[in-house]
């Protein structure tokens, strides 16, 4: 049911960290599309660049070269994806060159601003994204109140309740709790409720289950499935090395290997009979 429209596009993305002899290139000319309504999994060994790539796509990090577009609008440079192909052949003509912006310049771009408004982020450590002094209710309500400054309290309540219910947490039980009184799985579901409460069109979840005990992972999985069911247009990018999770959640998979795209394909077909040696290695290691 994935639409063919790419809501988020990366073209020619490259990135290095460090300087001089310590300089290390972690992404090499990566192209990636995230389609409206799909769940796209990004898999690959540790250090293959999954977090760096997805952070660049979501505008959390600059690229050294390449273009990110959200809904056709530039996220990380003044170039559009359509221009990028032209620019590639013109790298030496200064004016036409893709000039990746600094984070502060990025913030002024229309695509960046739209993406920031319309995306939700979930990371590995659930407690890292929750303020220990805040109740569950406050953590989930805060993004709503910041966005809709004059929304009536009843409406905020309704939104928060709905977000908590979607991730399988009963508001009557959890709204007043603080992070210290939540399990890892519960805290991660609160973090997910916080990420979805403003109804994002794109969600990035980077290893959302890696820090969660195995017994609680299925509830996180269920939460993401419920989100997709409630809002089928939502694009979900899941970074995971758990192929069981990927199989249950993802429509398509991007395989990253040492900063390069190794393979892209439909989940079932790839897991069943990928001919790619690196992908097979990942699959065999997981089974
Ligand atoms: P993955 O998420 O696939 O494990 P990452 O994108 O986190 O991979 O990292 C890719 C490589 O980039 C690793 O070698 C990592 O050490 C390096 N790296 C990531 N972020 C930084 C950073 N902020 N500074 C320096 N090196 C980094
Ligand atoms: Mg990572």
UniProtKB/TrEMBL annotation:
Keywords per UniProt: ATP-binding, Nucleotide-binding, Transport
GO terms under biological process: transmembrane transport
Record-level Gene Ontology MF annotations: ATP binding; ATP hydrolysis activity
CDD domains: ABC_NikE_OppD_transporters (cd03257)
Residue span(s) of domain ABC transporter: 8-283
Any single Pfam family the record assigns to this protein: ABC_tran
SUPFAM superfamilies recorded: P-loop containing nucleoside triphosphate hydrolases
Sequence similarity: Belongs to the ABC transporter superfamily.
Name of the featured protein: Peptide ABC transporter ATPase
Species: Bifidobacterium lemurum
Lineage: Bacteria, Bacillati, Actinomycetota, Actinomycetes, Bifidobacteriales
């Amino acid at each position: 049911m994935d639409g063919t429209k790419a809501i988020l596009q990366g073209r020619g993305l490259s990135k290095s960290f460090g300087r001089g002899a310590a300089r290390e290139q972690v992404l090499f000319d990566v192209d990636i599309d995230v389609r409206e309504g799909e769940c796209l999994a990004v898999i690959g060994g540790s250090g293959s660049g999954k977090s760096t790539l997805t952070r660049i796509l979501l505008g959390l990090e600059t690229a050294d070269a390449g273009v990110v577009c959200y809904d056709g609008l530039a996220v990380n440079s003044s170039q559009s994806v359509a221009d990028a192909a032209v620019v590639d052949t013109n790298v030496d003509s200064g004016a036409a060159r893709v000039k990746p912006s600094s984070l502060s310049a990025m913030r002024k771009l229309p695509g960046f601003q739209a993406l920031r408004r319309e995306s939700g982020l979930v990371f590995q450590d659930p407690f890292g994204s929750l303020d220990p002094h805040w109740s569950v209710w406050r953590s989930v309500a805060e993004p709503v109140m910041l966005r809709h400054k004059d929304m009536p309290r009843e409406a905020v309540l309704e939104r928060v309740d709905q977000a908590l219910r979607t991730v399988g947490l009963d508001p009557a039980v959890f709204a007043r709790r603080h992070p210290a009184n939540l399990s890892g799985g519960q805290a991660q579901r609160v973090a997910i409720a916080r990420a979805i409460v403003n109804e994002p069109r794109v969600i990035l979840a980077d290893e959302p289950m890696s820090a969660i005990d195995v017994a609680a992972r299925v509830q996180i999985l269920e939460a993401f499935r419920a989100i997709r069911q409630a809002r089928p247009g939502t694009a979900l990018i899941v970074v995971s090395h758990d192929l069981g999770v990927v199989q249950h959640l993802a429509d398509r998979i991007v395989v990253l290997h040492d900063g390069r795209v190794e393979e892209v394909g439909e989940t079932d077909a790839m897991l069943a009979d990928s001919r790619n040696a690196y992908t097979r290695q990942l699959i065999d290691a997981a089974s």
